[in-house]
Amino acid sequence: MNRGSSLTxxxxxxxxxxxxWGASVSAVALHADAWWTLVFAVLATxxxxxxxxxxxxxxLAIAGIWxxxxxxxxxxxxxxxxxxxxxLATxxxVYSAMERDAFLSGLGIxxxxxxxxxxxxxxxxxxxxxxxxxxxxxxxxxxxRGGGGGVLAILxxxxxxAAIVALDGxxxxxxxxxxxxxxxxxxxxxxxxxRFEWDFRSDDHSESVR
Length: 210
Known about the structure:
Structural class: mainly alpha
Number of helices: 8
Order of helices and strands: HHHHHHHH
Radius of gyration: 20 Å
């Protein structure tokens, strides 16, 4: 038997895909005119793949992402576009540096989306805050094994969602949820220089200039 031609399916990939489709189909069942969101479910399925071992931490994150996106769509079909960012968040999680057992990170991502969904459904508006849930997912997923970022994301998004619901608005608080939930990096997406190098020598043939 030629092992190279065999097809191996990964259980965690199947779980992630099942979460994507379970949530998407449920949302479409409630609002048939949101059928086009299944297109992004297909794209998210492709991002996960059937042969990639994504790990349970990523399954937790993906289930939270798509369950929350489905809840937002179920609350108001006009907000079905959030599945675009659910797809992008899925890709960010799957192709991140996140460890397979980084459960706090996975939970942080899931909670950031769930908190956004609660805020959107409770106030019937502000679906744009899921963009910051997507950004939070990308930031938290790339902290590796450490769970500090996941804990910060949980605290920041729970507080922001509670405030948005209590005030029946002020969705801009989600911006602060993203910023504080991403403090593990100091400033999200920015790497500060650690040393200065004099590079005036004409015979400098380092790899950095090739």
